[in-house]
Amino acid sequence: MDQVASEVEEIIEKQKSYYYSQKTKPVSFRLKQLQALKDGIKKYETDVNDALKKDLNKSEFEAYSTELGIVYEEISFSIKNLKKWVKPKKVKTALTHVGSKGYIMPEPYGVTLIIAPWNYPFQLALSPLVGAIAAGNTAVLKPSELTPTVSAVITRIISEVFPSEYIEVIEGGVETSQTLLEQPFDYIFFTGSVPVGKIVMEAASKQLIPLTLELGGKSPCIVHHDANIKLAAKRIVFGKYTNAGQTCIAPDYLLVHENVKEALVEEMKQVVAEFYGSEPIKDDKYGKIVNEPHFDRVASYLNDGQIVFGGKTDRDTLKIEPTFIEGASWDSPVMQDEIFGPIFPMFTYSDLSEVIEKVNNRPKPLALYLFTQSDEVERLINSSISYGGGTVNDTLMHIATPYLPFGGVGESGMGSYHGEGSFHAFSHMKSVLKQTTRFDMSFRYPSAKNGLAMVKRFFN
């Protein structure tokens, strides 16, 4: 056994002992830890901003609005509502259970594993951790090795705030992740790509470990002819090019009604200039691609269609301009996998039936965005297409409210979190029936006279 595996096993054994000591379960303890986490993040907020700038060139505004702010909101929302969430929920009992009481009791899974991605390396590591703490678990946190500066800050925060037998960060690459997936965790929460998600699910299945998979996919953006084009353009550009397109719920491709395509494209060009200037590659507010392999992958998609706007690249700074392309084939590489970058393939349609057919012929997307003023169109799209979650007349914003659970469906993931959804993700809902001792239904026993007749009466 190598040293990493030995250290990991020791950490998990310590966490199991800590969990079974019952220390994590009192609500007062959970609330104290959530507040301590928030205070710890506040202390290192400047370091988090600097790390996000170094690893992904995120501006302070983007870092706060898409990373720190969301984590703060998750913590505050959990602190405010936790006492309500943990209460056992009374349920009705059937006629066959006269005199008994039933309730559903949330209980933590135990020792949990959280594997975070690189695109929102702070938020997507800490938001699930909020749910794990609120539900009463211990946790091992594996941040992404592709954003090492952020990972180091996360390690500093967690090690200062929590003892390792309660919350621990384990940094490392693929081999470390593989070692972690071999361990007997009680729950796994993974955010990342579909291919890696399949590996995680296979590893979990070998030990029958329950899990949440937050994956991705090609999220369509539909702009109908009755949309507010000016506003749609601004909100689409915001959603597509935040973090240089490296967002799991970014609009991946555009389906625009043929009657408004030209107007929309012209508006989006103006918005790009408004957001990032005439040369976005030189704008310090505009993000970079995380590393050279991802840069080369995204840049290769420029060959899959005609460039309508943008297209400039700079490998030295790992930047690719906000780019629109048209004429791509539905079978081309840019339309096979999630782009995860600032290239936006555009297609036109004349009838919504075309949109429904095209989207439904592909794996179920993590997100869908629809721009329309018609309630009928909204109902048609939402009732005809399966997707994880989405927004009408905006992009990304459904992820930013703790009142809406966030998650995928089919190939885009399983399970959901945020707000109460995070508490439920890390909780087993235990069913308990408390039977009366004041009397007994003797007909249920095999020795009862006319027992069968009575049973039939109850169950009919």
TrEMBL record:
InterPro entries: Ald_DH/histidinol_DH, Ald_DH_C, Ald_DH_CS_CYS, Ald_DH_CS_GLU, Ald_DH_N, Aldehyde_DH_dom, Aldehyde_DH_NAD(P). GO terms for molecular function: aldehyde dehydrogenase (NAD+) activity. CDD domains: ALDH_YwdH-P39616. Residues 5-432 form the Aldehyde dehydrogenase domain. The active site is at E214, C248. Signal peptide: none annotated. Keywords: NAD, Oxidoreductase. GO terms for cellular component: cytoplasm. It comes from the Bacteria. GO terms for biological process: aldehyde metabolic process. PROSITE patterns: ALDEHYDE_DEHYDR_CYS (PS00070), ALDEHYDE_DEHYDR_GLU (PS00687). PANTHER family: ALDEHYDE DEHYDROGENASE, ALDEHYDE DEHYDROGENASE TYPE III, ISOFORM Q. Belongs to the aldehyde dehydrogenase family. This is Aldehyde dehydrogenase.
